[in-house]
Amino acid sequence: MNEKEVKEKELHFQQLMEDMESENLKAFRELFLSLHAYEQGQFYLKLPKSMRVRLYSYMSPVELADMFDLLEEEKSDIADYFLEMSPEYAVAMISNMYSDNAADLLHQVGNQEIIADYLKRMNQDDASAIQDLMHYQDDTAGAIMTREFISIIGHQSVRSAMHVLKSRAAMAETIYYVYVINQDEKLRGVITLKDLIINDEEALIFEIMNERVISVNVDDDQEDVAQRFRDYDFLALPVIDAKGRLQGIVTVDDIIDVIDDEAVSDYSGLAGVDVEEVSKNPFCAASKRLPWLIGLVFLGLGTAFLINHYENIMEKEVAYLAVFLTVITGTAGNAGTQSLAVAVRRLTLKDKEKNFSWQMIFSELATGMITGLVVGCAIFLIVLLWKKNLWFGFAVGFSMFAAINVGSLAGSFIPTGMKKLGVDPAVASGPFISTLSDLTSVFIYFNIARLFLL
User: Fold this and answer.
1) Closest by alpha carbon to 176, among 190, 156, 198, 192?
2) Strand partners, 392
3) Which residue has the higher pLDDT, 307 or 157?
4) pTM
C-alpha cells in the first residue's frame, strides 16, 4: 500500500468515526459499505467496545458477515466480540459466513456452552456443516476446507450444468472449478467455468470433463496441501474422504494463511521464541522464553565445566587459547545454524524418497567438510603468520575444521531425527544448535590443543 492509499484510508476511518459520533447513520453506512471487507475489519478492530456496540445497530449481521470472513484478530478477543452482540445477531452473522471461516471463529471462542447455544439457534444445515468442520483435527485439510462448492452429475448437459452454476454461484466460495460426482457423491472429474462456456450447450459433462482430478484427503496435513497448491498452481483443491466422496474444497486464500502460519511457526522454532508475542504482556512473554533460556543455561554450563576441566592447558597456553576460543565456537555455531536452516527447509519439501533424509545428511556433511577445510586452512595461515607457531596454527586450524563438521552434522541430523520421531523439526532451534556447537567445539579445541601443545 503506497503513501497515498494509506492517507486515504486514514481519512476514511476518521470520517467514519465522526459520522458515528454525530450519529449520521446514512453517511456512515454509505462510506462503510464502500470499503473493502478487509478495510472494514481494520476499522472495526480499532473501535472501542462502546463504538463496536453502536456499529452492530448500524449494520445488519448479513452486512458484517463478509467483514468477519476476513477479520484478522487475536484469538482471545473473539469471544469478547461475540458477547457484545445479541445471540440472535451473532447467529445470523455466522450463518452468512463461509462455513470454514465460521468454524474457525467458533473454535476460537472456546466456550462450549456459547458454541452449543449458537449451533442450536442455527438452521440444521448450517449447524451441521459447521459442526462437521469443527470435528476435524487441527492443521489438516478437513479443518481448513469449506463446504461452499459446486458439484454436478456427469450425465447432465452443459446447459443444465450452467443452470446449476447460476443458481448456486451466490453461496459458493469459488465458481471457477465445478466438480463432477456420481450418485454416491464420489469424485469423478472436474470441469472449469471456461470449459462450460466454450463447449456446446448440448454436450454431456462426462464427455468434456477432466477425469484426472488432483485431490487431497481430509486427514492430509495442511503443509502437504500447501505443497500441492505450490506444485500445481491451483485456485482450489477438492477434499475427499477415505471412500473417495467429495467433502469440500480448499481455496488458495486459505493456503496463503497456512503458508503464513507455517512460516511463523518455523521461524519461531528456529529463534526459540514465539515471534508473535509482541502483543502479550511482559510476564506472559517472559514465561514463554524462560524454559528455553534456562535449558540453554544448563547446556551452556557444560561448556563451562569443560573449560574448567582443561584449566591446566589454559594456565600454560592461556594467551594463545583464549584468543581463538570464541572464534572457533562462534564459527561452529554459525555453521550449525546454517545447516539447521537448510535441513528444516528441505524437510518441508514434498520429497518422499526412502533415502531422502540420509542423502540430505551426507550432502550437508560433505558441505561441512568443504567449508571446514577452507576455513580451517585460512585460520591456520592466519595463526601461523601472526603467532609464528606451526603447531599452534595446526591445532587451531584442525579444531576449526572438526568443529565446523560437527556443527554441520548436528544442524542436519537433529531436525532429521525429530522428523523421524514425528516432532516438528523447527523446534531444533538456532539457540539450541548454537549452544550445542559451543559445547562440542570447546571439547574438540582443548583436546586437540592438549594433543599438539603439551
Assistant:
1) 192
2) none
3) 157
4) 0.61
Q: Which domain holds residue 190?
A: 151-260
Please name which of 336, 327, 331, 395 lies closest in space to residue 367, comparing C-alpha atoms: 336
Same domain for 286 and 312, yes or no, is yes
Q: Are residues 288 and 435 in the same domain?
A: yes
The domain boundary residue, chosen from 68, 100, 135: 135
- The 10s digit of each residue's pLDDT in 272-281 is 555 454 445 5
**Residue 414 near residue 433, CB atoms below 8 Å:** yes
Tell me whether residue 284 is in a domain. yes
Gap between the Cα atoms of 217 and 230, Å rounded = 17
> What CATH code is carried by the domain that includes residue 62?
1.25.60.10
Sorted by sequence, the CB contacts under 8 Å of residue 178 that are 6+ apart come out as 150, 151, 152, 161, 165, 190, 191, 192, 193, 196
Angle, alpha carbons 81-86-88 (nearest 5°): 120
Nearest to 358 by CA among 419, 429, 432: 419
Q: How far is CA 74 from CA 253, 261, 279, 288, 447, in A?
A: 19, 14, 9, 17, 52
